Each structure stands twice: as structure tokens, then as C-alpha cells.
Amino acid sequence: MAFSSSLAFSFPSPPSGTFLSRPARRIRTGTAGRFQACSSPPPPPDVVLTRERGKNAKLIAALEKHNIQSLELPLIKHVDGPDTVRLPDVLRNDKFDWIIITSPEAATVFLKGWKTAGSPKVRVAVVGAGTARVFDEVSQLDHQSLEVAFSPSKAMGKVLASELPRGSESTCKVLYPASAKASREIQEGLSDRGFYVTRLNTYTTVPVEDVEPLTLKLAISAPVVAVASPSALKAWLKLIPKVNNWDNSIACIGETTGSAAKKLGLKSVYYPTTPGLEGWVESILEALRVHKQLKEAPKC
User: Fold this and answer.
1) Which of 73, 107, 152, 204 has the greatest number of C-beta atoms within 10 Å?
2) Furthest C-alpha separation in the chain
3) Dihedral (C-alpha) 33, 36, 38, 42: value to the nearest 10 degrees?
4) Where is the signal peptide, in residue numbers (predicted)?
């Protein structure tokens, strides 16, 4: 487990969502983000979950096993990128040695374009077990057309760029459908190794801006905010007004997001050495343990 901790940062705030209390009791918001019939005010959450609505279920279930209260508060949403409509034509008209997919969202967008193109034969390299799982069903149904053939030793883009196998051909062509906000790290790393890389910006992220006041108040009270991308971090900083003496923690899905958090000035940052759900849960638990210790420590 890698983490850095400090005790001072004035923090920003999130958007409206679903409050999940302990397993025996769930409090949900309506479409307008207002809490529905509840005999008493909801208890403060332990952790704020910031992925898009519908993408937090596995994390919620894992946290509930530890009796952790969650506030589901989407900070970003995915929209089409400038190259979304080009993807099917590129797949129909060209052949690639590898398709590089680095996130579950990139996988979902790619599969739509791939099916529109007539499901041509492709060989896919993925970053992370979560990304690989998006391909499980289609690869089992049609394993001759889509093969998930490589993942790096560590679930990071720069590691994939250094480890992706080359054939004996003089030219090895790679298609990289990515977020418009993704860095050039992968394409530059592959280009340096002699790969010919075609990048398509097939999706992008935009911040969620509507925040229901009660949800915002609850989010600020949470000791931990869980984030899965630098975009979510930026949305958190943009959407939440700075609060005096807010010194709580950020728990990141992996090192890339953790490093981005530090660069953005956040001080109490936790993340696993290996990205993924299990490590993310451990990072959240570690952040909560430290928060509890500090809260219970005798005051000088």
C-alpha cells in the first residue's frame, strides 16, 4: 500500500447522488437529488463514491462487507469524443496488429464501434482486470473475431507501452481508442519502440455541475473521497467550495490517479501499488483507520 498523509487542505465539493447507509438501511435520493421519506436525518457517510451512476455497485458491495456507509456522488460523466463516429470506418478499412484499451469506458465505446464495423478480427491489449472483464462476454461468444491477448505486468499505461510484444514485421500497427483527456504517454512510449500508432479520441469526460445542497453538506462531512480518475479529482476541486479546516482524505484507484492528486496539491492521499477494486477498498480502509486514530488521539 502506497500513501502519503498530511493534515491540511481546504477542499472543494461534489454533485447529487444516492446515499447508501449500512446494509440494514439504505436511503436513496429521488431524480432531483432530494432525500425521500426518512424519519430522521441521514447519518454522515464514511466515504464518497465519485464514479458515474451505475458504475459504483461493486465498490459499494465490497465496502458494505466492512459495514462502511457510502454516499454515491457522480463527479463526471462520459460523452462522445471527436473521433467516435470515425471508429467503425477505421476498423473496416485498416488492419492493426494491436488495439490498445486502457479503461472500462474505452472498452465499452470500442465494442460499440467494433460491432458497427461488422465485428472484424482484432487482437486487443488491455490495462487492468476491470477493463478485461468488459470483453469477457463478447470474447467467449466470438473468440475467433476478438482476442484479448495481452495485459502488462502492472496495470499502468506506461508499463503497457514498454512491454507490448512486437511481431517480426518491420511495421507494427496499433490502434489506440482513448479519452480525449488521456496523456500522450502510451502513444509516445510505443512510437519510441517503433510502433506505428493511430490514436482516436473516442470519448471524453465532463464534470457534473448540479449539486443538491444537502448532498453537498454530507459529502463535505465524509472523511474519505474515493476517486478513479484525474478528471474526477479536478471535478471535486472545482465543484466543492474550499472549507476551512477540511483535512480529510482522497482514496485513489491506482498510482496514476494518486500521483495526479499529489500534483493537484492534495496532501492526504492513499492508493494501492496495484490498481484494482481490491486494492482500492484497502486504500479506503487505510484512510478510514488513520482518520479514526487522529480523531481519537488525545488533544494537546
Assistant:
1) 73
2) 70
3) -10
4) none
